[in-house]
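Quick entry between incubations.
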Amino acid sequence: MNDKFHARRGAANEEMKSRGTWKTLQYLEGPMAGRTAMENRGEVIILSSNNYLGLSNHPQVIAASKAALDRYGAGTASVRFICGTFSIHRELEEELARFARTEAALSYVSCWAANTGSIPLLAGKGDIIVSDELNHASIIDGIRLSKTARKIYAHSDMVSLEEKLKEAAGELAEGGSILIITDGVFSMEGDLAKLPGIVELAEKYGAAVMVDDSHGTGVTGANGRGTVEHYGLEGRVDVITSTLGKALGGAAGGYVASSRAVIDSLIQSSRPQIFSNALPASVAAGALEAVRLLENDPSILARLRENTDLLRDGLKKLGFNPLEGESAIIPIIVGKTAFAIDMSAKMLERGVFVTGFGFPVVPEGTARIRVQASAALSSGDIDAALEAFGEVGRETGLLG
Ligand SMILES: Cc1ncc(COP(=O)(O)O)c(C=O)c1O
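Done. Structure below.
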């Protein structure tokens, strides 16, 4: 053991603790739901999960996962092209393409892997990526892995985007292309990308558009098909990436949905596809069932929307001023990171699990409590959570 190596990490950890930014893992003893059992605390109400549709504990999702485990076992113990791929992967991918209204789709073990595994391939040497400044870390890392030039535009600012596109068009090498990348729903703000403006500018400057809709899938759009559906832009967005680890079952997994040509090229050359195992069959089957539930039972999405309105309106009535938005993410800006963490701890003392986010996840001074709605919450859960918010708001001085 190299003592100096470990001591350096220990010192960095102590510094985080002294700054009040230390994150503590909370262990759950039951499934993710509106309420679940937390170790050493008992039952808590969950306002911090991306389990938007409440499907992570749905009996049909669980049954489908178990059946796939029985049929296929744990996995192939290898990479898809080397050792074969399960037929459930093809079934899932065909369903995801239908759901996203694209020619084809390809699953990954996470959306992190989908972004970092596809971006370097879709934009390489001689191309230029134009990216929103608040894009998710997995997009940022995907861009870092790419050998392309990059330009960052101010968050959702169409004037800034056009400036960057003009620059890019002027600098583009012969045969190169421009790829605009944006989150569909920004995870820390809860706001939707201005996709109509982005697509219009892309068409004007001959750029392609890639949308990571991890927080939009199953949430936005008339049928929950995401931000592209919300704006009626099907067929005008080139690449959609998303997760299966939030609304669509909540276990894990991600995907890229696009043209057949893009998907075929990812199968051939995307590094996680050719150097890493596939999504476990049980997880693929659970996600497939989640997509089918979303498509066949509109009451699930309706419940999410009702609960989102109840939470947002209730918080406003109490005197909070959450950021406006059309997603299921309702952030309350509180300022300092330590304040957000303390507020989240006080909520937990009252049996409500809602997470505070601070620097470096969000810019310094804009720490927040991120409230997330779920179809899994009952009206009683929401009432109890709002009561706790009122108490903590007054105790911390956020509410007068
Ligand atoms: C916008 C966005 N993209 C990608 C991811 C990563 O998804 P996964 O958990 O499937 O890797 C997240 C998760 O937080 C996200 O919010």
